[in-house]
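Quick one, C-alpha cells below:
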C-alpha cells in the first residue's frame, strides 16, 4: 500500500514557513510575534486610516464626540472595521477554540480585579451627563463600549496572548509583552491628541495587564471583553455631547487603578496557583 503523508503536516505556513500543525499539538496556523506586530500595525492603521478618511472635524468643540454623527464616523465605523479584521485573522489562523477559552488558573484573590473594575465602572458612569444627551448619542456610546471591548480584547488578549504563549514565553512575559503592545498601539492617538497620548499609552499598558488577569479569572475572553467595554464606556461618558463634563467617578477609576498597581508591585501577592509567597522586603 502506498504511504500517504498527512496533508495537515504537509501544508506550509506562509507566515513562519512551517506547517499548520505546530509542534506543541495546538491546532491552527503559526504566527510569530514579529508577524503579530505587523498584524497590529495593520489593525491600528485601519482605525486611524478610516478615522482620517471618513471622520468628522471636532476641533470646534471641547468634546471628543459632540454629536452622534461624530461618534459614529470617528469611532464606531473604524473600530467596527477593526473587529472584522481581527475576526478574519483569528479565522485564518484557525484559533477560535483557543482564543475563546484560556486555561491558566489563578489564586482566588485575583477575582477581585474584575469584580472591582466592573463595580467602579458602573459607579463612575456619568449618569447625569448622559441624561442630558440624545437617545441616539447614548445608544451609540453603549455600542462603542461594546465595540472597543470586543475588538481590543480579540486582538490583544485573544491573538496577542496566544502568540506569546505559543512562542514559549512564561505567563509573566505573556502578560507583560501583550500589555506593552496594547499600550504602544494607543500611541497612534498622538495624531489627534498630541503628547498626552504617550501618558495614555503608559496607563493603558497597566490596564492591559488587569484585562489579562480578567482573562485568567474567567477562563473565557468574554469576561475581559465585558470589563473592558464597561471601563471604556464609563471613561467616555464624560466626553460626549456639546459640553464634556468631568465627574467624581473619574477619581474612582484612577484611584482603583493606582490601588491595583500598588497591590501588585508593593505587596506582590502570588498570582499563580501553588506559587510561593513573595519574600518580605
Amino acid at each position: 500500500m502506498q504511504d500517504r503523508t498527512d496533508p495537515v503536516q504537509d501544508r506550509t505556513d506562509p507566515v513562519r514557513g512551517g506547517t499548520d500543525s505546530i509542534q506543541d499539538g495546538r491546532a491552527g496556523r503559526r504566527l510569530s510575534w514579529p508577524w503579530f506586530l505587523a498584524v497590529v500595525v495593520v489593525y491600528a492603521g485601519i482605525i486611524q486610516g478610516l478615522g482620517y478618511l471618513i471622520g468628522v472635524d471636532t476641533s470646534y468643540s471641547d468634546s471628543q464626540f459632540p454629536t452622534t454623527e461624530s461618534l459614529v464616523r470617528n469611532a464606531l465605523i473604524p473600530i467596527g472595521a477593526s473587529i472584522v479584521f481581527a475576526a478574519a485573522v483569528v479565522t485564518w489562523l484557525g484559533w477560535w477554540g483557543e482564543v475563546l477559552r484560556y486555561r491558566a488558573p489563578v489564586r482566588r484573590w485575583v477575582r477581585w480585579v474584575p469584580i472591582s473594575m466592573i463595580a467602579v465602572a458602573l459607579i463612575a458612569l456619568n449618569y447625569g451627563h448622559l441624561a442630558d444627551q440624545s437617545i441616539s448619542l447614548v445608544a451609540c456610546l453603549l455600542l462603542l463600549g461594546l465595540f472597543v471591548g470586543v475588538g481590543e480584547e480579540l486582538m490583544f488578549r485573544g491573538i496577542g496572548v496566544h502568540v506569546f504563549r505559543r512562542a514559549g514565553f512564561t505567563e509573566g512575559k505573556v502578560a507583560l509583552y501583550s500589555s506593552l503592545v496594547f499600550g504602544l498601539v494607543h500611541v497612534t492617538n498622538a495624531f489627534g491628541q498630541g503628547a498626552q497620548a504617550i501618558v495614555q499609552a503608559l496607563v493603558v499598558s497597566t490596564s492591559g495587564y488587569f484585562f489579562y488577569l480578567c482573562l485568567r479569572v474567567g477562563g473565557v475572553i468574554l469576561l475581559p471583553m465585558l470589563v473592558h467595554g464597561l471601563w471604556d464606556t464609563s471613561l467616555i461618558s464624560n466626553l460626549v455631547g456639546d459640553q464634556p463634563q468631568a465627574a467624581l467617578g473619574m477619581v474612582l477609576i484612577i484611584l482603583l487603578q493606582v490601588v491595583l498597581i500598588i497591590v501588585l508591585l508593593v505587596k506582590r501577592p502570588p498570582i499563580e496557583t501553588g506559587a510561593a509567597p513573595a519574600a518580605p522586603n
